[in-house]
Amino acid sequence: MTDPQPTAVRHFASDNYAGVHPEVLAAVAAANVGHVPAYGDDPWTERLQEVVRDQLGDGATAYPVINGTGANVVALQAMLPRWGAVVCTDVAHVNTDENGAPERVGGLKLLTVPAPDGRLTPELVARQARGFGDVHRAQPGVVSLTQATELGTVYTPDAVRELCDQAHALGMRVHMDGSRLANAAAHLDLPLRALTTDCGVDVLSLGGTKNGLLLGEAVVVLDPAAVDGVEYLRKADMQLASKMRFVSAQLVALYEGDLWLRSARRANAMAARLRAGLDALGLDITLPTEANGVFVRLPPQVAAELRRRWRFYDWDVSDGTVRLMCAFDTTEQDVDDLLEALRTAGA
After folding, report:
1. What is the tens place of the pLDDT at every residue in 152-161?
2. Maximum C-alpha span of the chain
3. How many Cα atoms occupy the beta-carbon half-sphere of 263 within 13 Å?
4. Calpha distance 212→250 (Å, rounded)
5. For the domain bounded by 259-344, which CATH number is listed?
6. What pLDDT band is residue 9 in, cutting at 50, 70 and 90?
7. Any signal peptide, and if so, which residues (predicted)?
């Protein structure tokens, strides 16, 4: 059996395609010493609590999990009764890319609203935040917003605060899917808590994998009154890692200093460079470029030519829109090579 040969090409399909940041790998290696208690009773998970409190406030508690889908399902389950429902956009990751996990595993109802730029507004939330006390309708209990959104747009602190105020006034809670929270914070040049705790977010799914981790995310409870049974649900939902120190060590490496910010800034900067090059080519960019994704319409023959070398996602087959995603390890040369290929293909 031959060893798999890595490719030198960095693709633009997803920031999940990227490898592991060297500083994260070093943290995993450093944690690989001796025997320590399993399931989170280890020094790295203890240190993670301090790191999370430094970043998100004294009341924050982190529950490391294995992946983002697991983080979202555990968080939403813990926030809702069996009859509860979640208000989210039609393009939210929990709705479009988790294979029905909130419904299948969590037993939750998703109440979606159309959001052309991926962002909820109080007006959109109001379309589904209704029917309270109606036994015939799943009861809206959580507003879930994605930061940055699946369309690469970013909520400002004022926008998040407005949604939180509305939800809390209705007796609802707010969950943030923060798989790309670092990219949003880097775009706005704000600390993580300015987009979460300070705005009234109750529970956060804190991202890691898309920003350089091998695996791992965390459910971060910002308001303990917003959840019930997180520790039990994490086990029941198969998200309790036995050798949790290796998940926690990665999260500590990412968030203890500024690695999260450096990595996100790099990805965002490469997306901005790509956006500028596409603009110069006169291509139709369909959405704002605020984080690390660029959405652009490509002629079919041009897209086909690019696919000979790179992978990227078709976003809307009907009009040729594709998503080009940059990662923490995307280089200027990677971007310039793609732009040159577009020129050669006649874009």
Report:
1. 999 999 999 9
2. 62
3. 28
4. 9
5. 3.90.1150.10
6. confident
7. none
39 by Cβ neighbours in 10 Å (0-12 / 13-18 / 19+) ranks as middle
Side by side, the strands of the sheet bearing 203-206 are 61-65, 217-221, 203-206, 173-178, 139-146, 84-89, 109-113
d(CA 200, CA 193): 10
CATH 3.90.1150.10 is held by the domain 21-255: no
Domain ranges of the chain: 21-255, 259-344
For tokens 């389950």, name the residue.
Answer: 77
Sign of the four-CA dihedral 227, 230, 234, 237: negative
Q: Do residues 124 and 89 touch, judged by C-beta distance below 8 A?
A: yes
DSSP string, 114-145: --TTS---HHHHHHHS--TT-TTSPEEEEEEE
Q: How far apart are CA 236 and CA 147, in angstroms?
A: 27
pTM over 0.85: yes
In a 10 Å sphere around its CB, with 0-12 CB exposed, 13-18 middle and 19+ buried, how is residue 247 labelled? buried
Helices (DSSP H) in the chain: which residue ranges? 22-31, 43-56, 68-79, 93-96, 101-104, 122-128, 157-169, 181-188, 230-236, 245-255, 259-280, 300-306, 332-344
